[in-house]
Amino acid sequence: MLDLAILGLLQEREFHGYEIRKRLRDDLGLFANISFGSLYPALARLEAAGAVVSSELPGPGRRSAEPVPATGSLGGELAAFRSRRDGTPRGTKRARKVYRITDLGRKQFEELLASDEPAGTDDARSFGLRLAFARHLAPPARLGLLERRRAQLAGRLAADRARVEAGSAFDSYTRSLVEHSTETTEHDISWLDRLIESERLEQQQQQQTGPVVRPDDTRPRRRDGEDHTVKGTVP
Amino acid sequence: MLDLAILGLLQEREFHGYEIRKRLRDDLGLFANISFGSLYPALARLEAAGAVVSSELPGPGRRSAEPVPATGSLGGELAAFRSRRDGTPRGTKRARKVYRITDLGRKQFEELLASDEPAGTDDARSFGLRLAFARHLAPPARLGLLERRRAQLAGRLAADRARVEAGSAFDSYTRSLVEHSTETTEHDISWLDRLIESERLEQQQQQQTGPVVRPDDTRPRRRDGEDHTVKGTVP
DNA sequence: AGGATGATATATCAACTCGATATATCGACG
DNA sequence: CGTCGATATATCGAGTTGATATATCATCCT
């Protein structure tokens, strides 16, 4: 799961670990707080598998000028020694390891994105993650993703409603919880329906006006000018 | 987290492992699918800690003469043994281990329920679980639970909105995802507000009409006839 | 009758995630 | 001038997950 997120981010450009965490937390909101205890092992994993390569950056700060801060003698002897050795203008922070995706990594990303990895699981995060990277999917696979999720939610809604029906055994708190869950699922489904509809529309137009898209073409396509909008809050 | 769920269920009556899983999956819907790899270790943990005790039942199914005397005590065991002796066709399943909560377990349950265990985490499940057991909380603690959750969600909403604002860098899929997340958070907050309001109202009435409730009284109270309703969908 | 499937029931394992903690550097604030 | 908070990497224990193994019984299919 994390692998997919990391590879997806690295698709865009190079990142170092701390940055990846920030992006996942601040931009997407999924993975509210990824722990470093997951992130760094995941990066090591991916590097061992040849999906990414890392390179050490000693510390290229924004401040290009080097005021040569006289070696803070009290600090760690080892660190002082190392920084003196490599002669870099240690202007900034600590040394970072930046990770870059490889061709193999790109291939693995496509596979992860297409399959429903945490199989069968009704996991909102795994869907959200895939949707955030949906631009890297071929249009048919995109529709498939949306429809699989819709089916999942439909199943959940059925279960929710069954609970509401048989809910006479619940106290008012539990009842309210179950009812709220039902409403949320309904809201999710109507959102998905809008997504699916606009996706269908766009794909039809694409077929009529644009060139024919090979059904097995999974390479990312950049159509930056366009905007197959989905917005529009429910009235 | 699981410990709380298990102890809460066992509050009601005895259960065996498989049954606990079913209840958590079917009734509440939280913990969509608890794995046995979590459940059985958790039960072993709780038993080692003295929070529960287990007893082996060779296998009294529903098809036995006496439909499981819900005495919750040794009576069930004995009856099962007798029914096997007197030629009943051993009608039942595999031997089960039923778990019963102890006084110590009840104490641990109160503590777990009151504290916000997975501390600081914006975890919907841990809140849902506590709400499902809210009847075991003293009224002030109940309000505290709701208000802590409200504060969490308010923070989340702020983050969501910040993402929507700065969202020009997103493609339409990600944008739609973030917008939907915002709407969901808003919905959650308005639900919580209704819960809080009705809880406040009820507690005021309780103070005026009913007997004085000792603030440290955390024992479960059963007021089965009443209904401090929260229902009422948003117009 | 027999055979496959699926529900009931307990248990274990590798892989993964999380929260806490340790280490180190740097800017800012009082 | 020391402490706080942000940047940055790394590791550890504990807990969760999904898969798998074992076993018994019921039910459906042939």
Topology overview:
The structure is a homodimer of 235-residue chains.
Chain A: H1 2-12, E1 15-16, H2 17-28, H3 36-48, E2 52-57, H4 77-85, E3 96-101, H5 103-114, H6 124-132, H7 139-165, H8 172-209
Antiparallel strand pairs in A: 1-3, 2-3
The structure holds a DNA duplex (30 and 30 nucleotides).
Quick take:
The structure is a homodimer of 235-residue chains. Chain A is mainly alpha-helical and 235 residues long. Among the domains of chain A are: 80 residues, Arc Repressor Mutant, subunit A; 72 residues.
Task: Describe this structure as you would to a colleague.
The structure is a homodimer of 235-residue chains. By secondary structure, chain A is mainly alpha-helical. Chain A has eight helices and three strands; from the N terminus they run αβααβαβαααα. In chain A, helix 1 crosses helix 5. The interface between A and B is large, with 41 and 40 residues. The first copy, chain A, binds a DNA duplex (30 and 30 nucleotides) through helix 2 and helix 3.
Beta content of chain A comes to 5-15%
Assign the CATH topology of the domain at 1-57 and 96-118 in chain A: Arc Repressor Mutant, subunit A
Please describe the biggest sheet of chain A, giving its number of strands, its sense, and whether it closes into a barrel: 3 strands, antiparallel
What general outline of chain A do the C-alpha atoms trace? flat
DSSP strand count of chain A: 3
Nearest-integer average pLDDT of chain A: 78
Query: Looking at the chains present, what oligomeric state does this protein adopt?
Result: homodimer
